[in-house]
């Protein structure tokens, strides 16, 4: 494993030689333990609602900009970038889910901007102060992820099953510079929010459980979606040729590196599968309506 100083030297050497700066792997902070996944899937199987072909209603989005100052570089994301992010979401979910930006709030708080992260006191304070709406409404919080439990993340999300009317935890936290036109190299086309929204709607990573598949059955892979090939681990960059890391498994095929729920860079991601859309629709009907 490279140390921070070694990575710095590598990047400097690449720049000096005129080579492209390497794009670091995607870092998503959304996770669930195998035991919790097992419990969640049992609950989902027992309580599964009858789904329709698409989520019938618009999903309201409440965007909360958390910045360290009033500048765009300091996290004060311009309205045009937020608008373009919602447009990108609607392109990525076209025909299945329609996202509607209802309101944008702006808060300058250096501590929240720097230190918000999974299970942090800052995350709790932010959500308790700002969350709006009910279980069918998406709250997005854009922050800096510079230190603490969120250091280096692109984003993280709650799952539908974890929603509670007595808690304001539900929602997505993303890196402010991952929106379209942002400054994060390799991850500034808006696919971070597309990825995290997949979690918010009940999807796991495509590589969940590796080749064996956590909780796999004869009809579901490790991510509990039958039409995503098994994948040994997260992909990064945009591998060429596309690898097949789980040959001989129940869910064969080239790794789904172009799927929104893998870890590749934004330009490599192109879509969800029909099975993923079906799962998101059913999860929404079960837990968010």
From TrEMBL:
| Keyword DNA damage (UniProt) | no
Q: Does the keyword Methyltransferase apply?
A: no
Bilayer-crossing regions: none
Q: Which domain of life is it from?
A: Eukaryota
What Gene Ontology biological process does one annotation of this record name? proteolysis
- Pfam families noted in UniProt: Peptidase_M43
The alphabetized UniProt keywords are:
Disulfide bond, Hydrolase, Metal-binding, Metalloprotease, Protease, Signal, Zinc
Report the Gene3D superfamilies cross-referenced here.
Collagenase (Catalytic Domain) (3.40.390.10)
List the GO molecular function terms. Answer: metal ion binding; metallopeptidase activity
Signal peptide (UniProt feature, chain positions): 1-18
What positions does the domain Peptidase M43 pregnancy-associated plasma-A occupy? 188-282
Q: Record's InterPro entries?
A: MetalloPept_cat_dom_sf, Peptidase_M43
Family annotation (PANTHER family): METALLOPROTEASE MEP1 (AFU_ORTHOLOGUE AFUA_1G07730)-RELATED, PTHR47466
Family to which this protein belongs:
Belongs to the peptidase M43B family.
Q: What's the protein here called?
A: Metalloprotease
């Amino acid at each position: 494993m490279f140390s921070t100083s070694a990575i710095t030297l590598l990047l400097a050497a690449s720049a000096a030689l005129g080579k492209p700066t390497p794009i670091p792997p995607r870092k998503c902070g959304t996770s669930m333990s195998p035991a919790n996944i097992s419990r969640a899937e049992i609950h989902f199987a027992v309580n599964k609602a009858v789904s329709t072909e698409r989520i019938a209603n618009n999903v309201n989005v409440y965007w909360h900009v958390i910045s360290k100052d009033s500048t765009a570089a300091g996290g004060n994301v311009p309205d045009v970038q937020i608008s373009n992010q919602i447009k990108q979401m609607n392109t990525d979910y076209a025909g299945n889910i329609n996202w509607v930006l209802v309101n944008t709030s702006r808060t300058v708080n250096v501590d929240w901007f720097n230190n918000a992260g999974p299970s942090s006191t800052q995350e709790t304070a932010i959500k308790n102060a700002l969350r709006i709406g009910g279980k069918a409404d998406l709250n997005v919080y854009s922050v800096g992820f510079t230190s603490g439990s969120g250091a280096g993340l692109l984003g993280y999300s709650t799952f539908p099953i974890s929603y509670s009317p007595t808690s304001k935890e539900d929602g997505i936290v993303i890196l402010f510079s991952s929106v379209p036109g942002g400054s994060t190299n390799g991850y500034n086309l808006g696919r971070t929010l597309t990825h995290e929204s997949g979690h918010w709607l009940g999807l796991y990573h495509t590589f969940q459980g590796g080749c064996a598949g956590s909780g796999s059955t004869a009809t579901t892979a490790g991510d509990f979606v039958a039409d995503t090939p098994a994948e040994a681990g997260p992909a990064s960059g945009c591998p060429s040729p596309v690898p097949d890391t789980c040959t001989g498994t129940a869910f064969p095929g080239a790794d789904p590196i172009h799927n929104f729920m893998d870890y590749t860079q934004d330009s490599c991601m192109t879509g969800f599968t029909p099975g993923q859309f079906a799962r998101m629709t059913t999860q929404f009907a079960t837990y968010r309506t």
